[in-house]
Amino acid sequence: MKRCYRRGKGKRGRRAAIAPNHNNSTVRLEQEESQTPVHAGPSSSGDPSSSSLTQNSVVPELPGFYYDADKNRYFRLLPGHNNYNPLTKESIQYKAMECKRLKLLEEEEKQKKKTTRAGLNSSMLLQKRQLGLLSSTSYCRLVHELKVNCMHRRKIEIHSPDSSVAGTNNFKIIVADAACERIFTVNDVEHGGCKYGIINLSGLGKESPTVEMYDNLYFTNRKVNSMCWASLTHPDSHVLLCLMGIAETPGCASLLPASLFSSSNSGDRPGMLCSFKISTAWSCAWCLNPQINACFSTGLTRRVLVANVVTGRQQSFRTSSDVLAQQFATQTPVLYNGCRSGEIFSIDVRQRNRKGQSWKAIQLFHDSAVTSIRLLKAEHYLMAADMAGKIKLWDLRTAKCVKQYKGHHNEYAILPLHVNEEEGLLTAVGQDCYTRIWSLQDAHLLRTIPSPHPSSKDAIPSVVFSSRLGGRRGVPGLLMAVKQDLYHFSYD
Questions:
Q1: Angle of helix 122-130 versus helix 136-148 axis, rounded to 10
Q2: Could you give the 3-state DSSP secondary structure of residue 458?
Q3: Cα–Cα distance, 304 to 326 (Å, whole number)
Q4: N or C: fewer beta carbons within 10 Å in the chain?
Q5: Please, what is the Cα angle at 94 between 87 and 153, to 5 degrees?
Q6: Are 381 and 369 within 8 A, CB to CB?
Q7: Residue 11 scores a pLDDT above 70
Q8: Nearest-angstrom CA–CA distance, 254 and 243
Q9: Mean of pLDDT values over 35-59
């Protein structure tokens, strides 16, 4: 093919790309399509994310330029303050991520049935089960693996007694109770606070899924750092909230009756409404062990606080780092804590506070801040995630890591882990707004679900997975709350 460029002109264009400080009129290569592009060889991948940067590519990175794989050339990065069509590193990365997300959404719509592993299908599983080659536990686990790859998304209609409130605020947190009959929701509101409510999931099984949302506008003004369900008078009777301080008002841990967020019990007196003044709380946990009844813990700045809500007795443990994640054991009176320093340690809460840190029992270490910890049912293993995107399974008997679950993305956010041991699944939402599901047994990544909304810091989905959403006769699947919408990823 004949070139339409003069030789000299081609050289000038090439020099402008490789040496951006050269003084000529071709500094904005992305706007002068008539110039000779700076080629870097054939692209090795058609993934849209490859055009963002050259981190995972053989194409060399040039300071002040980025490589576009689709056009096979370099473009100059313009300053972020430029008002006319600026090209910045962040905007390029965002565009590439958005292209990838839209492509995955399109693929999910077209491809209804996917396989998690080569040769794994429902007929083969049934045949092995009938021949006695699979135990009932392994059969159920593998069936769930197949089903999560066939889940399809449906938007849920949210009904509320106050029709002007439903669907007008962005979801921040959703947490299901033990029976998965209700989810407690925290929504951001325009003036900077939060709104709390409870969604009843009994309507998920309908052909057009609908749920009922109840809130209490009296408790709507404080930002929520952490929350969990609390079993005080009966299972999941209350909700424990760690609230941030406002101006001269200090932070607090509040225990609210779930009946406050119900239309049927709106006139009843609350079972218990109490509040403990605390400094900024990063995490909280409710104790279900009968040996230390009616107790909760909050992870504070370089301190762990354990309190009894009936007697008001408090016990404090000094730590060397902020406590970002907590969980009580149910078989022993032990509290597990994950810290900003990467340390994970346990406390026997029956002992008195001692000077120093000799009260620490088990100690494990991550290379980055620990954002979530989850004990497995037998309490011999603990799952932990950190801000480096690492998810590790620790054997508490040997204090060694036995598995790693790869693919999670996190840099600075406090993101939860969701362990469903009965179904053999681990679920986590990354800072990139992708929901990933792994096999709990062998750490195989089963599915990556893109968010229905463009990714951003304020649009990270909050999810709940269960095989019984709505109670004992509920439906299996994944609930995803993002922005103002609630979605159900149901089994086929």
A1: 170
A2: helix
A3: 10
A4: N
A5: 155
A6: no
A7: no
A8: 7
A9: 42
In which element (H, E) is residue 42 found?
Answer: none
The reported pLDDT for the residue numbered 69 is 76
Q: What's the mean pLDDT in 22-34?
A: 37
Maximum Cα–Cα distance for the chain, whole Å? Answer: 89
Residues 6+ apart with CB under 8 A from 335: 285, 287, 297, 304, 306, 326, 327, 328, 329, 346, 347, 349
In terms of Cα–Cα distance, which of 381, 382, 385, 360 is closest to 371?
Answer: 385
Report residue 278 as tokens.
């605390």
Q: Cα angle at 155 between 151 and 160, to 5 degrees?
A: 135
Q: Given the structure tokens 């700045």, which residue do they identify?
A: 301
Measured in degrees and rounded to the nearest 5, phi and psi for residue 140 equal -65, -40
What pTM was computed for the model?
0.81
Count CB neighbours of 350 within 10 A. 11
- The mean pLDDT of 128-140, rounded to a whole number, is 87
Contact 455/482 with Cβ under 8 angstroms? no
- List the strands of the sheet with 343-348, edge to edge: 323-328, 334-339, 343-348, 360-365
If residue 382 lies in a helix (H) or strand (E), which one and from where to where?
strand 381-386
Q: What is the mean pLDDT of residues 112-130?
A: 76
Q: Phi-psi region for residue 251, left (φ > 0), alpha (ψ -120 to 50) or beta?
A: beta
| Of 168 and 452, more confident | 452
Residue 487 pLDDT greater than 50, yes or no = yes
pLDDT band at 165 (very low <50, low <70, confident <90, very high): low
